[in-house]
Amino acid sequence: MPAAAIVGVAVSAYAANQQKKAAKGAANATQRAADSATAEQARQYDQSRQDNMPWLQAGQNALSRLEGASAGNFDSFKASPDYQFTLDQGLKGLERGASARGGLYSGGADADRMQFGAGVASQQFGDWWNRQAGIANVGQTTASGLASLGQNYANAAGNNAFAAADARSSAYGQRAYANNALAGSIANTGLNALGKIGWGGV
User: Does the pLDDT of residue 135 top 90, yes or no?
Assistant: First the structure.
C-alpha cells in the first residue's frame, strides 16, 4: 500500500478516535452536570422539609387532640391554659362571694361552682376547637406544600436523568458514525490502492 494511503488511513483513524473521545467527554460532562443538579435539588428539598416540619408536627398534634375530643376525651381541652385560667378565676370569685356570705361549704355554693364550671366549659370549648382546627389546617397546608415540593423534585430529577440519557445516546451515535466513517475511509483507500496496482476490475 502506498505511503500516501497509509497516511490517509492513519489520519482518518486519528480523526475518528478524537471524535469518539469528544462524544464520550460530552456525555460524561452532561452526566456530571445532571448528577450535580439532582444532588442540589435533593439538598434543597431536604432543607425545605426540615424547615416545614414544626408546622407539620403542630398540625398533626392538633388533629390528634381534635380526634380525642371527638371520641369523648377532653383532657387536652381541660388542660388548655385559657380554659384553666377562666375556670380558676371564676371559681375564686364564687368562693370569695360565698365566703363573704358565710356559705363557702354550703350546698348552694357547690351548685354555683358546678353550674359555673359547666358554663365555662361550654363557652370555652368552641374557641378551643376552632384554634385546634386552625392549627390542624396549617399542618394540612404544610403537608400539601411538601407533597408539591416532592413532586417538583421528582420531576426535576427525572428530567436530569433523561438529559443524561439523551447525551449518552447521542455519544453512542456519534461514535458509531465515526467508526463507520473510518471503515469507509479504509475501504476507499484499499480500493484505490488495488486499482493503482492493476486490479482495475475490482
Answer: yes
Amino acid (one-letter) located at 120:
V
Is the C-alpha dihedral spanning 95, 99, 105, 107 positive or negative? negative
Question: Which tens digits make up the pLDDT trace of 93-123?
Answer: 655 555 555 555 555 555 555 555 566 776 8
Distance in angstroms (rounded) separating the CA atoms of residues 106 and 99: 10
- Cα–Cα distance measured from residue 158 to residue 152, given in angstroms and rounded to the nearest whole number: 10
- 49 close to 149: Cβ distance less than 8 angstroms: yes
Are 202 and 194 in contact by the 8 Å Cβ rule? The answer is yes
Could you tell me the three cell numbers for 190? 484499499
CB-based contacts of 116: which residues, under 8 Å, 6+ apart? 90, 91, 94
Q: Write the CA distances from 172 to 49, 102, 164, 166, integer angstroms.
A: 39, 100, 12, 10
